[in-house]
Backbone:
């Protein structure tokens, strides 16, 4: 199992994601944003941060990078892709995931430990691990200024009907005002997942929680089967 | 009188300083030279009113890797790693434009740390504003907090701690002090001294514009007052994305061994960086302003030399490596331009192409500024006034609620939730969960704890004892998480040193800092001085902000500041002798006056060692320094944090001679509130006070006993958002 973690100018969480991937399973390497070749990795993480300063709009510039072209092809071929925070924003901008992330309801960047509910049923391969099955609660930090998930009502209905809501904020934890408490979604095929909270910062009891590992393990399980 | 005389005064130089410059040059300076001298001879760059005092501070220690004079100080943490850290002020820019002032304060201190080759891993900040019932203070608070978050969050460095106080004397002159901590392999660190005649000088990062011209002299080295609006253009604009690229670029260049030396461009821009690098290396430097990448093509040479455009670094590079260096800059999509050469003539020479537009001895620029003796005189009594906000005769419960709701004591969650405290995945104790931030260092197999403190009100009451208390509080905070101090940085925020009272405060505070550090054996490895902090009503509270870094072997054993389990015993450790003088309660009653009792430094140091060892051995469930608002507030904080009440009796403090009010709300150094197994507490020599449990905070203190529901206490303690956002957002 080899993970590839994208690195844009302005990425912040790529080294932590690299560490989390390696802890969850296998080895992990950085992929420079100018590389058109993903180098045969089994799964891709688009990490958090402020790619290209988030200028224009969060994720709007990064989606045009050569590495993202390669990620789009990788995803189309069924490869597992996990977008975290800014990575989620980039995947939405790239139309690999539905919806958009808007300014938080409180209009402030907010950093808080939140509880996430694994939703379901999302398509296999992600989601059928016992520690990551629908209904399981994960404690993971969230930190963002633009994390309010938005999609038109009819799109939200479709997402729910197709089981594309991957994660929801537990009651009382939706600080950013996301529609229907949605914290993360997947594409229709289920191999591309994005979420606002940061599982890579929840992989060690010393820093608060190890629940984030479950997310990486679920993606790894998908990678092993892809 | 010639026209130049007026000009030098406008730039902040005195007539005698101007005459000295003429004598050193053997002629009158031209405009470029005058601009450069005025900046390097400003208080901000030359420390001309403080340098003599700073010689009192102890700077040596066996763990010191880099001391004062470098971009930041550094101490060894083991396994070939060092921790670099420094605190710096950005007060006047923040008073004029809080968002950008605070943001660029963070940007500047980050550059100081990565200039050493250390990757920044943590930011802390120490903020002071006027009382929150003032619209101005709410505006400054909101802007400064957003600015700190904007820069630190965007660049991906965790903001892990800090403090905020609200006091009327900061109304017109807020304080924004930012501290950065970085981690480096000791062998990869680099100094700022230029070396190697014939080597190239490379400017990296952002292009140079007209922003921040005169920031160091006009803004940072004079009092604020009327016309501050006009100073807004002297405030720089920050771009954390650019800094993120420059940071990664510099760390890659250093890891590849491509740089001889590295320095950030801060106050006084290219002028100060080039002159200080040359001075430290005992060499000369030739710069060509025509080769500096500019934002506006028509900039004059003096503007290029004094611009404070942010996110720039200056490096000395061997000629054969310049192409490789520029290729790394290109990779990170940041600027890189060879703009000069190291020479052996001891001159800073500024060219525009072939034309020489300025030429000055390095020595005259950097070390030529006269150092002044202060004329200190103690003011008579309390000079800051009093404003009672708490009626006399109210119950002890009402007093406790008023203290918990005081924005200086109340939870700062509203602020720290706007900061990313987890990026880097090494934050073992997040803000407010323990008395000091704890950062795991897998690289060296241990952890560091960091704390920043400085209660200006108490320093105003007694500059010497108040400063000693600030150092002791930092040491106590570190002890609570089991850390041993390794080094200290400080930012001395004071009023106009040319006036007798602020001069006296500064003189006494530096002595207190020196004596406390010597007694604790903690070296001062760096710092910053910010003077002329005055508003129309007079000077700020004298505010020495102290940042301390300590080491602990095992971050998994760190005690938190909240109680843990019902039934745990509660005890008090240390030579705590609380008095109402200088306390938050005295402030609210309008009873502040000069004077504080002297802390028992040796006894506090012994108590720190006892608590530190007990935490390291895992014998304490919780450890919390008794600070603002006294023991009653410390008990309430530990209770609220746990969602557990407590029942204690303060008779042991009464037996030491304290009145009920002193026992409840008195302040002073040397008190540790601890909880855990009763036998373990008694083995430490802790004084037993009571037990954790229930949903009420019950404190027996003679005729001032308290019984307060946990929910009421919590409501008061979490009232900062309502106070800060009363104007809407």
Residues:
């Amino acid at each position: 199992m080899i993970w590839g973690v994208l690195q844009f100018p302005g990425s912040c969480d790529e080294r932590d994601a690299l560490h989390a991937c390696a802890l969850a399973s296998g080895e992990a390497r950085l992929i420079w944003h100018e590389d058109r070749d993903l180098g045969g990795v089994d799964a891709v993480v688009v990490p958090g941060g402020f790619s290209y300063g988030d200028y224009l709009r969060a994720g709007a510039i990064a989606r045009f990078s050569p590495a993202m072209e390669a990620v789009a092809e990788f995803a189309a071929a069924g490869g597992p892709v996990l977008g975290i925070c800014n990575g989620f924003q980039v995947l939405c901008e790239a139309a690999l995931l539905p919806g958009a992330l808007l300014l938080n309801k409180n209009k402030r960047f907010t950093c808080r430990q939140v509880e996430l509910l694994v939703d379901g049923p999302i398509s296999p391969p992600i989601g059928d691990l016992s520690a990551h099955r629908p209904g399981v609660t994960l404690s993971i930090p969230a930190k963002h200024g633009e994390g309010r998930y938005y999609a038109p009502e009819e799109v939200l209905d479709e997402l729910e009907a197709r089981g594309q809501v991957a994660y929801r904020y537990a009651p009382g934890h939706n600080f950013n005002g996301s529609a229907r408490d949605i914290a993360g979604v997947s594409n229709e095929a289920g191999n591309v997942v994005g979420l606002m909270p940061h599982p890579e910062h929840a992989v060690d009891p010393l820093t608060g929680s190890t629940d984030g590992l479950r997310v990486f393990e679920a993606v790894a399980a998908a990678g092993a089967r892809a | 009188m010639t026209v130049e005389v007026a000009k030098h005064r406008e730039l902040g130089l005195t007539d005698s300083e101007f005459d000295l410059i003429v004598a050193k040059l053997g002629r009158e300076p031209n405009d470029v030279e005058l601009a450069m001298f005025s900046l390097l001879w400003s208080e901000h760059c030359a420390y001309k009113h403080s340098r003599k005092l700073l010689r009192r501070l102890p700077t040596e220690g066996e763990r010191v890797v880099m001391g004062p004079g470098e971009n930041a100080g550094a101490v060894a943490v083991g396994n070939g790693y060092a921790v670099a850290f420094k605190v710096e002020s950005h007060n006047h820019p923040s008073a004029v434009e809080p968002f950008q002032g605070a943001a660029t304060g963070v940007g500047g201190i980050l550059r100081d740390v990565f200039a050493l080759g250390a990757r920044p891993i943590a930011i802390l900040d120490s903020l002071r504003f006027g009382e929150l019932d003032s619209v101005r203070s709410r505006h400054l608070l909101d802007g400064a907090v957003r600015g700190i978050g904007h820069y630190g969050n965007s660049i991906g460095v965790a903001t892990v701690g800090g403090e905020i106080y609200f006091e009327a004397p900061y109304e017109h002159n807020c304080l924004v002090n930012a501290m950065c901590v970085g981690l480096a392999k000791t062998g990869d660190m680099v100094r700022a001294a230029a070396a190697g005649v014939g080597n190239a000088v490379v400017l990296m990062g952002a292009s140079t514009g007209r922003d921040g011209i005169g920031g160091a002299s006009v803004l940072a080295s004079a009092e604020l007052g009327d016309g501050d609006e006009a100073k807004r253009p002297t405030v720089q604009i920050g771009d954390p994305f650019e800094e993120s690229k420059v940071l990664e670029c510099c760390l890659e260049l250093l890891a590849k061994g491509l740089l001889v030396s590295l320095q950030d461009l801060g106050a006084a821009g290219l002028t100060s960086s080039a002159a200080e690098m040359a001075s430290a290396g005992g060499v000369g430097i030739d710069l060509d302003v025509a080769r500096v990448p500019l934002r506006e093509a028509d900039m004059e040479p003096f503007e290029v030399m004094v611009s404070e455009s942010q996110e720039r670094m200056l490096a000395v590079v061997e000629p054969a490596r310049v192409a490789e260096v520029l290729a790394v800059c290109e990779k990170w999509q940041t600027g890189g331009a060879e703009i000069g050469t190291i020479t052996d003539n001891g001159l800073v020479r500024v060219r525009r192409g072939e034309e020489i537009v300025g030429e000055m001895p390095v020595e005259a620029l950097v070390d030529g500024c006269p150092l002044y003796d202060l004329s200190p005189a103690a003011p008579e009594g309390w000079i800051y006034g009093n404003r009672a906000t708490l009626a006399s005769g109210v119950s002890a419960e009402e007093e406790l609620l008023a203290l918990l709701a005081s924005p200086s004591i109340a939870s700062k969650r509203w602020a720290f939730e706007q900061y990313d405290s987890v990026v880097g995945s090494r934050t073992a104790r997040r803000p407010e969960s323990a008395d000091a931030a704890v950062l795991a260092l897998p690289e060296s197999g241990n952890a560091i704890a960091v704390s920043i403190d400085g209660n200006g009100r108490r320093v105003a009451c007694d500059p010497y004892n108040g400063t000693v208390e600030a150092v002791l509080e930092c040491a106590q905070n570190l002890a609570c998480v089991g850390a041993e101090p390794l080094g200290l940085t400080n930012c001395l925020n004071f009023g106009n040193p040319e006036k007798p009272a602020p001069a006296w405060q500064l003189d006494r505070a530096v002595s207190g800092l020196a004596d406390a550090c010597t007694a604790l054996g903690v070296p001062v490895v760096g710092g910053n001085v910010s003077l002329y902090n005055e508003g129309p009503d007079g000077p700020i509270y004298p505010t020495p902000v102290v940042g301390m870094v300590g080491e602990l072997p095992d971050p998994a054993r760190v005690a938190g500041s909240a109680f843990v389990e019902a039934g745990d015993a509660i005890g008090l450790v240390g030579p705590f002798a609380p008095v109402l003088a200088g306390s938050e309660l005295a402030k609210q009653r309008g009873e502040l006056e000069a004077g504080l009792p002297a802390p028992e430094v040796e006894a506090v140091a012994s108590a720190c060692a006892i608590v530190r060892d007990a935490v390291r051995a895992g014998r304490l469930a919780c450890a919390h320094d008794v600070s603002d608002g006294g023991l009653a507030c410390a008990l309430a904080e530990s209770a609220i944090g746990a969602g557990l009440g407590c029942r204690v009796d303060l008779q042991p403090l009464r037996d030491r001679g304290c009145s009920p009010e002193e026992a409840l709300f008195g302040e002073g150094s040397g008190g540790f509130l601890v909880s855990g197994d009763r036998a373990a507490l008694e083995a430490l020599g802790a004084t037993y006070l009571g037990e954790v449990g229930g949903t009420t905070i019950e404190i027996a203190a003679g005729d001032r006993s308290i019984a307060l529901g946990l929910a009421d206490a919590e409501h008061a303690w979490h009232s900062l958002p309502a106070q800060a956002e009363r104007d809407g957002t």
User: Anything to note?
Assistant: Confidence is low (pLDDT under 50) at residues 121-125 of chain A. Helices of chain A lie at 14-24, 66-76, 86-93, 153-161, 212-225. The longest strand of chain A covers residues 110-118. Chain A touches chain B through 33 residues (CB under 8 Å).
